[in-house]
Each structure stands twice: as C-alpha cells, then as structure tokens.
Amino acid sequence: MKPKKKMRVMVVDDEDHVRRLITTVIKTMNCEIVGEAGNGKEAVSLFCTLKPHMLLLDINMPLKSGKEALAEIKKRFPNACILMLTSLTDKETVEDCMELGASGFIRKDLPLDEMCDVIKKTWRAYRESLKAN
User: Fold this and answer.
1) Which burial class, exposed, middle or buried, applies to 11 when counting CB atoms under 10 A from its CB (0-12, 13-18, 19+)?
2) What is the pTM of this model?
C-alpha cells in the first residue's frame, strides 16, 4: 500500500501573525505548506507556479484584493480549491466570492479545532465534486 499523499496548501494573508497561525493549524493536520504570500498579486503569481491542492486566501489585501485574486486564479485554473479567509461577515462579499468560485469560507476568529473541521470538510467536498464530474 502506498503512503497517503499530503495535501499541499498555500496560505495568503497580508498579516504575518495570521499567516503564522494558519500555517501552524495546517501543519497539525499533516498537510504540507508549499507557499505563503502577503498580497493578492503575489498570491496569483505563486499559485500559478506552485499549483497547490488548496489555497487559503484572505479577502482584504493590498495590491490586489482576495476577490480579484480569486477571480484571476479561477479563470486560469477553474478546478482550483480556494477557501477564503475573512474577518468580515459581510453577506454580499461572501456571496460574491462564492459566485466567483470559492470553495468556502473560514472566519479568522474561529476556534482552531473548528477551523480544522472547515478545512477538512471543504477538501472532502471538493474531492467528491471532482469525482462527480
């Protein structure tokens, strides 16, 4: 039996302490952090190079918003699994991102175990959707 391949994750947030927290959470889930970015422009470039299994993408960032980065990445990689990070609960922004192809959302203030659950459920649902198509 071959060993299970680790999920490759990229984390994008303009706040360094948030990136550190998210990467720590991801590592506890036995996933590999393949890259980090601090703005939307860098996120698009790095995603195209690294092609991670999952991208955790902040909405409010400099140079290019998370929403703009999401739209650009989904245009190039329609099957990308992108989970938006937000401290907002602005319903309109959430709906906009979902229409642009986001796989889901994580509020930054979620307890860490709930954050892990959201990531796992999103990844499972994403993989199932690929099998169905």
Assistant:
1) buried
2) 0.89
